[in-house]
């Protein structure tokens, strides 16, 4: 089986950076996996997701998504979504007007995602809360029929119900259509029933990638590994 995400011998440094973010990193995530990406702040979670999304130039054989080079194959932009970072869209325009300008979207899928995220098409973007604005950002990607979804802390602005409904929808996408999800977050409450795999980043390297057994104490495991990494840094 070809991995949905296949990373081989990745060494990456930002231009002018003092040290590589990753050195010789390897990771293969199978199709339909729901992978939780953990690690301390600054360890490179966002960088890794952006690399998978084709946002930085790497050699074609280094990162392959759906069997194709992440940066070089521009067709992947229609199959891979990176959801993260600010969404400063605050113009005096309604959600309905935004959606009307987007063509080629399946109306039934759009209606489903609108319902999952509880978005009112009459919302005006300059009046919505941060959480509502984030839900609109998520809508604009998830209304497309995707194969890989990369989430970078986007649920931090959502309330408990909105987050639970989103994760339930993503699980359905995984089980029904084989969609692969990589989810970087520090909010571990209620996540155990969603994830199938765990990837943990330590400084400069992948510490662990493994299928996740039911009942794994994620918080305790994450805290222990972060403290070990901090101790090594202090030494």
As a whole number of angstroms, the C-alpha radius of gyration is 18 Å
What class, by secondary structure content?
alpha/beta
State which percent range the strand residues make up. Answer: 15-25%
According to DSSP, the number of beta strands is 10
Mean pLDDT: 92
Shape assignment: globular
Describe this structure in words.
It is a single chain. The chain has 235 residues and is an alpha/beta fold. It has 6 helices and 10 strands. The protein has a 6-stranded mixed beta sheet, sandwiched between helices. It has a 4-stranded antiparallel beta sheet with strand order 2-1-4-5, with no helix packed on it. Helix 3 (107-117) runs antiparallel to helix 4 (130-142). The longest helix has 18 residues, at 160-177.
Task: Please give a quick description of this structure.
This protein has 235 residues and is α/β, with parallel strands linked by helices. 31% of the residues lie in helices and 23% in strands.
Present the secondary structure layout.
Blueprint: E1 5-12, E2 22-29, E3 34-38, H1 45-52, E4 63-65, E5 68-69, E6 80-84, H2 95-100, H3 107-117, H4 130-142, E7 148-152, H5 160-177, E8 180-184, E9 197-202, E10 205-211, H6 218-234
Parallel strand pairs: 3-8, 3-9, 6-7, 7-8
Antiparallel strand pairs: 1-2, 1-4, 4-5, 9-10
Helix pairs in contact: 3-4
């Amino acid at each position: 089986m070809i991995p949905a995400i296949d990373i081989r011998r990745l060494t990456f440094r930002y231009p002018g950076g003092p040290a590589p973010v990753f050195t010789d990193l390897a990771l293969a995530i199978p199709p339909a996996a729901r992978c939780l990406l953990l690690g301390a702040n600054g360890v490179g979670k966002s960088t890794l997701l952006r690399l998978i999304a084709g946002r930085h130039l790497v050699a074609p054989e280094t990162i392959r998504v759906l069997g194709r080079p992440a940066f070089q194959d521009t067709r992947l932009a229609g199959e891979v979504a990176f959801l993260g970072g600010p969404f400063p869209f605050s113009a005096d325009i309604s959600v309905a007007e935004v959606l009307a300008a987007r063509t080629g979207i399946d109306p039934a899928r759009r209606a489903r995602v609108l319902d999952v995220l509880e978005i009112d098409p009459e919302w005006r973007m300059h009046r919505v809360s941060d959480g509502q604005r984030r839900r609109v950002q998520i809508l604009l990607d998830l209304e497309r029929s995707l194969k890989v979804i990369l989430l970078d802390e986007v649920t931090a602005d959502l309330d408990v119900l909105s987050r639970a409904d989103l994760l339930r929808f993503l699980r359905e996408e995984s089980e029904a259509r084989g969609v692969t999800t990589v989810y970087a977050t520090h909010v571990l409450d209620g996540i155990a029933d969603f994830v199938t795999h765990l990837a943990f980043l330590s400084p400069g390297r992948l510490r662990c990638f493994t299928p996740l057994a039911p009942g794994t104490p994620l918080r305790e495991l994450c805290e222990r590994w972060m403290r070990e990494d901090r101790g090594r840094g202090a030494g």
